[in-house]
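Human: I wish I could look at a protein chain and see how it folds. This is the protein in question:
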Amino acid sequence: MEERYNRNRIYVRPDEQKMIKNYRILLGGAGIGSIIAECALRFGFENITIVDGDVVEQSNLNRQNYLMSDIGKLKAETLKERLLAINPEANIMAINVFIDKNNAEELVKDMDIAVNALDFKSEIPFVFDEWCRKYNVPVIHPYNIGWGGLVFVVKPDGIQLTNFSRDPKNFELRLVEHITNYFKFWVQPKPWIEKLVMQFKNEKSVLSPPQLSVASWIAGGLVTNIMFWIATGQEVKRYPKFYLSSIIDDRN
C-alpha cells in the first residue's frame, strides 16, 4: 500500500485500495458534495468529477468546504483546486455548469457511481436519477438534517425516489417527515427531527432549510463508506431503507 494510504491498513486491504483509486465518482452538486469530495479523496478515491454552476456565498461557509477568500468563485473549480492541493496526482475534473435535461445523460453515462446532491427546486434531480438508472449507475442521496446525516442509496434495479413522489416542491421536507413517521410507528420516535420539521414549517418567511456543519461531515463519512462498500462489491441498504447517524439520541 502506498505511503499516502498507509494508515488505511487493516481497515482497507491493499487490493481494495487499488480497486477504488480509479473508481469514477460523479458529484452532482458541490454544496454538501464539497465535504463528500474531500472525505472520499482522503480515503483513496482519486477519480472525481464535480458538476455545479453555482458560486460560493458567505451563507455556505457554516457547512460547506470553502473559505472566505472563495466567495464569488465557482464552487466546482474552487473545490477542484482544494482537492488537488491535497493530492496533486488525483484525477479531478470540474464542470462549471448546472445539471439540466440537456447535459445529464452525457455527464452520467461513463460513471461508476453518482452522488445526487442537487437542490429539489425542479424535476432535474429526478431526471439525473433516471439517466443513472438507464446507464446502471448507483446513486447516493445525502441530506443534512442538522444534528444528523441522512443517506439513501438508489440502485438501478431497485425502488426509485420517484416512487415516493415526483413533485419537487418541499421534496426534502416531505421525505424527512416520512422518516419521522417511520420511526414513530415502527421503531422509536425521533422527537428532535419532529421538532425540526415543525419549526421549519412554522417559519413565516420563505427560507432555505437550516443546516449544520455537523450533519455535512456525518453525511460525508457515510457516503464515503457506502461508496467503498459498493466499489468493492459488498452489499448496502437500498431505498426505501436508509442510513441515519446522530448522537442526539445517545448522549448519556
